[in-house]
Amino acid sequence: MPVLPRGVRLGVDVGTVRVGLAVSDPDGMIATPVETLARGHVGRDVADPPSDLLRIAAEVSERAAGVVYVGLPRHLSGVEGAAAASVRAYAGDLARFVAPVPVMLVDERMSTVTAHQALHASGRDGRRHRAVVDQVAAVVILQSALEAERAGGKRAGERVAASDRRPGSGTVVDDVGGHEKGRRR
After folding, report:
1. CATH number of the CATH domain containing 109
2. What is the pLDDT of residues 101-153, one digit of tens each?
3. C-alpha to C-alpha distance for 21 and 37, rounded to whole angstroms
4. Residue 16, domain extent
5. How confident is residue 171, by pLDDT bands cut at 50, 70 and 90?
6. Closest Cα partner for 69 from 32, 36, 106, 34?
7. ∠ CA(92), CA(84), CA(64), 5° rounding?
């Protein structure tokens, strides 16, 4: 079984309003929360990138992260809806900012529900969940990816190619051979 390179991994939970960040230890054993960012929406002006993408890119650089895992929301049936399309576009834009570090999409079904349950079980007041639920969801996403890495001996999920200069036009690349898998317009 191939051995993955040692290094920090970053987990990202993309919401419509906030983005949660989590980070792993260099051995990829455990995920911990980092912060919650306000979601910046990509406009037409490439010269003025959203602050959340810049902050994530800074985290990747500062921590010398080897991969960024972004949670891909799917319905329980596995079908992708509008939220998944938005996250795919976001991941394509993020890949452009963190290149050459790979951005991988991983299934995040139930991550927010799991995060709320964990916060409730810890005794945290429900009204205060909003401030940290995105971080906890990012931890759930990253921990799941770490477990998939250990089980499979390779990076989890599907690789995202950097979007071209038009925001929201990310290309997903399969992780076997790097062939284009689909294009969002």
Report:
1. 3.30.420.140
2. 999 999 987 555 665 566 566 666 556 656 688 898 899 999 999 999 999 99
3. 8
4. 9-168
5. very low
6. 106
7. 40
